[in-house]
């Protein structure tokens, strides 16, 4: 016979319950905003950061500056690839009327909401890319490797070099300056990118062409 005792069922404290309810309420409100009219799936924060995937979105100003730089560098009718840099992709999609095409290579499948422009990408398999992504078919590649490690940078660099016709805009930690030069031949810019949440590590941009970021 089943025991009717509930003694062994863990009970949440009232404080934890209240916090949980608040969390779910906030989540519902956010989902409500997303389904209500005027929600822009391309706005930064429409897909929330997942810190377990080492995701940190740029501030609005930084994303816009990088998007404008990419459009200028790509030129009229240019092709832009965003590798692990979704907030720049989102800003690029807000540039109505500009003449360019863009795709996003990203590990996080939540970004598949962007349809055919989304390409699943795992830096551990840098050249495991769809056949439709022809070598050297992008005028500029913007990349933000998820981890500050030489292994991650080196593997992402393989992808970048495969995709780009030449121009590279890399965003990563200041501590990666030597490795960035070694693997991609890029130099640090004066422009200092900011994130919507402050990161402990100093972050910088690197390019291999005459950019507007100096």
UniProtKB/TrEMBL annotation:
GO terms for molecular function: nucleic acid binding; protein-lysine N-methyltransferase activity. It catalyses: L-lysyl-[protein] + 3 S-adenosyl-L-methionine = N(6),N(6),N(6)-trimethyl-L-lysyl-[protein] + 3 S-adenosyl-L-homocysteine + 3 H(+). The keyword Methyltransferase applies. GO terms for cellular component: cytoplasm. It comes from the Eukaryota. Gene3D superfamilies: Vaccinia Virus protein VP39 (3.40.50.150). GO terms for biological process: methylation. SUPFAM superfamilies: S-adenosyl-L-methionine-dependent methyltransferases. Keywords: Cytoplasm, Methyltransferase, Transferase. This is EFMT1 methyltransferase. It comes from Chaetorhynchus papuensis (pygmy drongo). The gene is Eef1akmt1.
